C-alpha cells in the first residue's frame, strides 16, 4: 500500500531514488529529497507491504494534473506489479487529476497504459 513519505524513511527513500537515471550522485539525491520535503505541490509516497519496496514521487502541476517525477522499485522486487500498483494508488488518491509523466517516467507509464488496454492486470 502507498504511504506518505516521512523523514524517518529518508535513507530508504534515497536508496530507492538512486535507482532512477540521473539520481546516482549524492548531491542530486539530496536535492531531490529536499524538493519533496519543502516544495509546494511535491509529494513522495512509498510502497510498503512487509518492507518498503517502491517509491513514487509526484508534483501537482495544476488543479487538474499531477506529474510523476520519480518511480522506482527495489531491483529484487521488480516484475511483481509494484510499479503498476503505485500508479493505481496515485490514481485512487487523486481521482480528480489526470496523471502524467515526465521524460524519465513516460516509458513506464506508457507501458502500464498499454498493458491496461491489452487486458493485463494493472
In helices, the fraction of residues equals 25-40%
Q: Report the biggest beta sheet as strand number plus sense, adding barrel if it closes.
A: 5 strands, mixed
The secondary-structure element order is EHHEEEHEH
Number of DSSP strands? Answer: 5
Provide the CATH top-level class: Alpha Beta
Q: What would you call the structural class?
A: alpha+beta
Residue runs with pLDDT of under 50 for 5 or more positions: 118-122
Percentage of residues in strands: 25-35%
CATH superfamily descriptor: Gcn5-related N-acetyltransferase (GNAT)
CATH topology: Aminopeptidase
Query: What is the total domain count?
Result: 1
Query: How are the strands of the biggest sheet laid out side by side?
Result: 1-2-3-4-5
Quick overview:
InterPro entries: Acyl_CoA_acyltransferase, GNAT_dom. This protein has 122 residues and is of the alpha+beta class. 37% of the residues lie in helices and 26% in strands.
Structural summary, described in words:
- With 122 residues, the protein is an alpha+beta fold.
- The chain has a single domain, classed as Aminopeptidase (3-Layer(aba) Sandwich), CATH 3.40.630.30.
- It has helices at 10-17, 26-38, 82-93, 106-117; strands at 2-4, 42-48, 52-60, 65-73, 98-101.
- A five-stranded mixed beta sheet has the order 1-2-3-4-5.
- A hairpin with a 3-residue loop joins β2 and β3.
- The longest helix is centred in the N-terminal third of the chain and has 13 residues, at 26-38.
Amino acid at each position: 500500500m502507498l504511504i506518505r513519505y516521512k523523514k524517518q524513511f529518508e535513507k530508504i527513500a534515497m536508496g530507492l531514488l538512486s535507482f532512477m537515471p540521473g539520481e546516482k550522485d549524492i548531491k542530486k539525491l539530496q536535492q531531490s529529497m529536499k524538493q519533496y520535503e519543502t516544495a509546494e505541490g511535491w509529494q513522495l509516497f512509498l510502497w510498503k507491504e512487509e518492507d518498503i519496496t517502491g517509491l513514487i514521487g509526484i508534483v501537482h502541476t495544476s488543479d487538474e494534473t499531477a506529474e510523476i517525477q520519480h518511480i522506482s522499485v527495489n531491483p529484487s522486487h521488480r516484475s511483481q506489479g509494484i510499479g503498476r500498483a503505485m500508479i493505481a494508488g496515485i490514481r485512487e488518491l487523486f481521482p480528480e487529476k489526470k496523471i502524467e509523466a515526465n521524460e524519465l517516467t513516460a516509458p513506464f507509464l506508457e507501458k502500464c497504459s498499454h498493458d491496461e488496454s491489452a487486458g493485463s492486470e494493472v
